[in-house]
Specification:
about 230 residues, Ferritin
């Protein structure tokens, strides 16, 4: 005998509820295999869950699109910050800048090695340190580094920072809706189960083949175990 299994994906949940609601709309009131209270709840739950799912998809697509643009900003900021630090080190080795002035950039204890810029947090931290350090050194009368200039570095770091903050907002919004969906699944599953239970009880007196066919019309999904033949 086939067995039923509740939907395990959100799209399957929406299909199951949608099938029941659509079938009920085409069924005479007197022949409805589940209560009107259950039908009303199913309509409400379906509408809300469909809205949540569409909202999540919209937010996710926006996040992905923004992420592609942000990737370019990461690359540029990392390149400019790294290049500036390397030029700064060359100036120190040529005695054009005093080694002790590396402390202005937070680079006094890294032994002329470019710091780790692999994470967004590290890139933002060092970008801000480099900008602040160069501004302090030139304010003390030091000759500015021009290739790249700190103004250009500042532009790239600022664009990266804005993109980074935007991405965090996108992820937060997407995660919030995803959690709403996760919390609401219990209610969706409860309504689906109620419909299936009521439909099966209502049609329990029908011949097996007809019963399964009628029940499937209300969104019930049946599975056959290995070796069983579908009716």
């Amino acid at each position: 005998m086939p067995y039923r299994r509740l939907p395990n994906t959100d799209s399957a949940r929406i299909r199951a509820l949608g099938s029941a609601v659509e079938k009920a709309a085409d069924t005479d009131f007197q022949e409805l295999p589940f209560s009107t209270g259950t039908l009303d709840e199913a309509r409400s739950v379906l509408a809300h869950f469909t809205h949540l799912s569409a909202r999540y998809q919209q937010l996710y697509e926006t996040q992905v699109k923004a992420g592609k643009s942000f990737a370019g900003k990461i690359k540029n900021a990392r390149m400019y910050v790294s290049h500036f630090i390397q030029v700064l080190y060359m100036c120190v080795m040529r005695s054009e800048i005093k080694e002790e002035q590396l402390a202005l950039y937070g680079l006094e204890n890294v032994h002329l090695v470019v710091p780790d810029l692999s994470s967004n947090e590290q890139l933002l931290e060092w970008g801000q340190k480099i900008i602040r350090g160069e501004q302090q050194r030139t304010a003390q009368g030091g000759v500015p580094i021009y290739n790249p200039s700190i103004a250009k570095v500042n532009v790239m770091v600022t664009l990266f920072k804005e993109g980074y903050q935007t991405q965090k907002l996108h992820r937060k919004a997407t995660s919030r809706v995803l959690q709403e969906i996760a919390d609401y699944r219990k209610k969706v599953d409860k309504v689906v189960l109620e419909i299936w239970e009521e439909v099966e009880r209502h049609n329990s007196g029908l011949p097996p083949e007809k019963r399964l066919a009628v029940n499937r019309g209300y969104g019930i999904v049946y599975y056959y175990r290995r070796g069983e033949i579908a009716e």
